[in-house]
Amino acid sequence: MADIKWLEVAVETTEDRLEAVSARLTMNGVPGLVIEDEAEFHQFLENNRQYWDYVDDGLLERMKGVCRVKFYVSDDADGKRQLAAWMEGIEEPYTTAVLGEDDWAHSWQKYYHPMEIGEKLYIVPEWLKQTPVPGGRTAVYLNPGLTFGTGSHASTQLCLAGVERYTVPGAPVLDLGCGSGILSIAALRLGAERAVAVDIDPKAVDVAYENAALNGIGRDRYRALSGDILTDAALAEELAETKYALVLANIVADVIIPLSRQVERFLAPGGTFLCSGIIDTRAGEVAAALERNGLTVLERWERKGWVALAARMA
Q1: Which residues are annotated as part of the binding site for S-adenosyl-L-methionine?
Q2: Where S-adenosyl-L-methionine is bound, by residue (predicted)?
Q3: pTM of the predicted model, to two decimals?
């Protein structure tokens, strides 16, 4: 993968349009966004003074007046088709710049920092692995690599808090739309017996395995697959051979709604379906789909306009 080239797409917007543009990109299927906003950047610095040493000296000056959203696609025909689909309905101007794989890694490192999530988890980037872990917390080490799931997005944080609450020690976990593998790896670190992780992006498989290895988790306990269970009946049938105490789906409402028809096939008796990535304006629609397909909503969490739901079969 050393010679893979990537396009960094930068959508220029304004403070009052930032949330709407980010929401539209997410609804269009963009799996991960980098927000470059002067106000949020200053808030980050104020709340994380211990990480000031990791901030480039010229970054403060370059962030003045900045308000943009960035994401990444491969620099090939498939990536450019994906870009056209993701930009549908976005009127703001955008630019692209060619990046190598090393450039991608650097662009993540200047924003990514250790985070306390919930009561037990501590998400740590690989390059800060020597950072002391606060007492009573369990570290999850990540190299975000080439796919979504750093733990910084509100929907991922909601789902991680749910993983902390609903992981059953000694029981299996299914992670649908796994991205970097952060959710299922966190479940394993919290005591789950084994996990299967699935994503429609083939790149996610290698990234998830790499992140599992960073946490001392081998392929005897962790299996990553590429595919779409909504369209691949054989894959869905294979996954359904095991019944899982926890099924995770940090995706989007348009995927969770049809997925809710299949959840019963994967859940063990008393098991929990935990879904996130839901914009608050569509949370009622998702909850109704869960109820319609035999699931009872147990809990709802909300953060920065995003919603996560925990449900069980009625």
Answers
A1: 156, 177, 199, 250
A2: 156, 177, 199, 250
A3: 0.68
Per the annotation, binding residues are: 156, 177, 199, 250
- Which range, of 112-126, 194-208, 260-274, 283-297, averages the lowest pLDDT? 112-126
Asked if 11 and 69 count as a contact pair (C-beta separation under 8 A), the reply is yes
Chain centroid to CA 259: 17
Q: Which of the residue ranges 11-20, 51-60, 93-102, 146-155 has the most confident prediction, judged by mean pLDDT?
A: 11-20
